[in-house]
Every structure is written in structure tokens, then in C-alpha cells.
Structure prediction request, 323 residues.
Amino acid sequence: MADTFERVKQIIVDRLDADESKVTMEASFKEDLEADSLDVVELVMELEDEFDTEISDEEAEKINTVGDAVNYINSQS
Amino acid sequence: MLNENVALVTGASRGIGRAIALELAAQGAKVAVNYAGSEDKAEAVVQEIKESGGEAIKIQANVSNSGEVKDMVKEVVETFGKLDILVNNAGITRDNLLMRMKEEEFDDVIDTNLKGVFVCTKGVTRQMMKQKFGRIINISSIVGVSGNPGQANYVAAKAGVIGLTKSNAKELAARNITVNAVAPGYITTDMTDQLTEEQREQMLAMIPLGRLGEGEDIARVVRFLATKDADYITGQTIHVDGGMVM
Prediction:
């Protein structure tokens, strides 16, 4: 669990150039991390590569916060 | 030059698509020749490219079928390592007067000529976004701007392609992916060979430059849009029609 969060966090920090302290489970990509819709799409693509999983469009649309992403990934493994 | 670039051209076994595939290959691009049914003709295009020292493969896929397109894009990336240029060229006609046009004639043309552009563009976007580079060139038609009797379905699809081009251009610009359209006028291909002599003469009278276009006329503009020279152009529709529609 913690491991997934750390890996997701690292990708977010790299991709969005976000402040590490702002990347919490509750943080919303768009509201707290200043990502636009396209950034989120790209982020989901990177997460798919990092965790070697496929996130369907329907599932991807439900990912709004860092926690949503982490929980989804954990539910798949 | 397009050295090291990888291009996917849909509907590339004949006509304008064939000319585009050969032109991009002549400039050094590795080319995936997509076809729907004409395997022999697609193979001939691949052979012609190889004989000139280029690299090419042929891939069968229905452009409006997202599963087949997904597999096609995967094959291109697995074979050539990336995908820089997509030319959405595949198109069909089912001409008929509005009063006689069957619903399925309308649907078939919209499926291949408009939805196909959406499906293929969506199919390559992921790869291009990762690369932070992409050139998408959609083949529309001048009749999408001017209208044409007997082609309600085709015109609607081709006008739709112009709108789709603009929308996609705005959405993907931030990722260094440009999206442009080329609108051919009256080009000599299998498709236009079906016109009657009378229709042909009427057409000629409307072309200021006084000749029919060749596939190569279109291919050279597509090549330009695919090169670095066109880096600052996106969302545009370039008419290549001898001045027919201004």
C-alpha cells in the first residue's frame, strides 16, 4: 500500500512538477495539483506503464484524487 | 526529409493513399501501408517501397473498428519502434441522390470516412503523447467545403473531418502534435474514374488551373505537413484543387 503510494507520488512529482508535500492521498489532481484534463490522461498512461496494468476509459474517468489512483492500482494487484 | 520517421497511411493500397505512402517513403520515412480489402495492391506498394531501398509493412484493418485499429497501431510500434505520422486517408463513396440514398449508404460512408478518422486518431494519440511529437494529416475533400449533389453522405463526412481536425488540433497542440487537413479537388483515381465523361468535362470547366489533379499533387502537400518545415501549422485545411474552391 505505502509502496504504491510512493511510486505514484514520484510519477506525479516528475510529471506535474508538483511540490512533494502537496501530494497526499486526498489531493485532487485538478484542484490541488494544478493538472489539466490532458495532464490527468497522461498521468494515467504513465501509471499503466509503471504498474503494468490497463486502466479503462471508464475507470480512468473516476480517478480524481491521488487516493483514487492508488486504490485502483491496489485493487488490481 | 523524413529520415527516422515512422508513418501510418490508411487506405494506402491505391489512389491518393498509395501516392502518399510512396512519397513519404521516398523522403526516408518507414511506412505502414493500411488496407481494408486489396491485399495484393497493398503488397505491391510495400514491394515498390522496398525496391527503392525503403522500409514498409502492410497491415489489414477496418479503420472504423477500434479493436482492429488498436492492433494495427501496436503492430506499427512493435515493428518500427514508434509512430510519428498518421495520414487518415481511407475513404469510400456510396453516391446517390438524397431522395434515393439509403440510410445504410449514409452510415457506411460516415463510418469509414469520418468515424474512421476519429478512431485512428484516438488510436495513435497515446503513442504520440508519450513521444511528445506527432503529425496527423487528414484527407478531407474540397466538396466538404463546397457541397456536391449526389454526395450528401460523402460531403457530410468530409466536412466533419475538417471540424474534427480543428478540434483535435486544439486538444493536442500542447503535446507538440499538429493536426491538419488536406482537401483534394478533382484527382484522377479509381474513385473519380467512375464519373461519366460529361461529369468530367463539367469538372474541368470549374478548375482554374485547367487540369485534373494527380495523387502526387496531394502527396507532396502531405509530405510538407509531415516535415519540420510545417512545425508552426496546425488546425488548417489546405485546398489542393487547382483553384476550384477559394
About this structure: The mean pLDDT of chain B is 95. Residues 132 and 175 of chain B are 5 Å apart (CA to CA). Residues 103-131 of chain B form the longest helix (29 residues). Chain B is about 50% helix and 15% strand.
